[in-house]
Amino acid sequence: MSIRPISSFDELAVGQRFDFGTLEMTREEILDFGRRFDPQPFHVDEEAAADGPFGGLIASGLHTLSASFATMIRTGLLAKVSMGGAGMEIAWPAPVRPGDVLDVTGVVEELTPSRSKPDRGVAKLRFTAHRLGDGVKVLDVLGTVFLRR
After folding, report:
1. What pLDDT is stored for residue 116 in this prediction?
2. pLDDT at 1 over 70
3. What separation in angstroms does the CA of 147 have from each of 11, 18, 33, 90?
């Protein structure tokens, strides 16, 4: 099922679910992102990572967040209505390793029409990523966004 972009905040309903698709976290991308944006040993050095707290190379949580967010955005679901975000609550309950394929989904948790600006509403959207191999949740985000009505 493909995702149809919405044209108004009012097209969403609490509990509505979306399947945003999958992405693969490659070794090369993990190393590149880590070197550029999160140069901790377990993101950039396979030898050091082997002796580290995760027992091997893992993706930066920021990389997992960015890649999953991009997967959601590329569907175009909010392209016509997004007015930007107001914040996120983020959890990384399990590490992501090279070769992991992630399934990204979302659910509408809360919708609040603006009282002061009737041309918009505030939506709380939870998106998650699970490893396809074992179903383990690796990312849980509750984002607050402003959407046109």
Report:
1. 96
2. no
3. 11, 17, 30, 21
Instruction: Kindly provide the residue ranges of all beta strands, DSSP E only, lying in 77-118, ordered along the sequence.
Output: 82-91, 101-113
Q: According to the model, what pLDDT value does residue 19 have?
A: 98
Whether pLDDT at 20 is above 60 = yes
- Report the alpha-carbon distance of residue 22 to residue 73 in Å, rounded: 13
What is the pTM for the complete model shown? Answer: 0.94
Please tell me the distance from the alpha carbon of residue 118 to that of residue 71, in angstroms, as a whole number.
30
- C-alpha distances (whole Å) from 116 to each of 36, 120, 141 are 41, 9, 27
The domains of the chain, with CATH numbers, are 9-148 (3.10.129.10)
Using the Cα atoms of residue 116, residue 146, residue 120 and residue 106 in order, give the sign of their dihedral: negative
Whose CA is closest to 103, among 131, 66, 134? 131
pLDDT at 135 over 70: yes
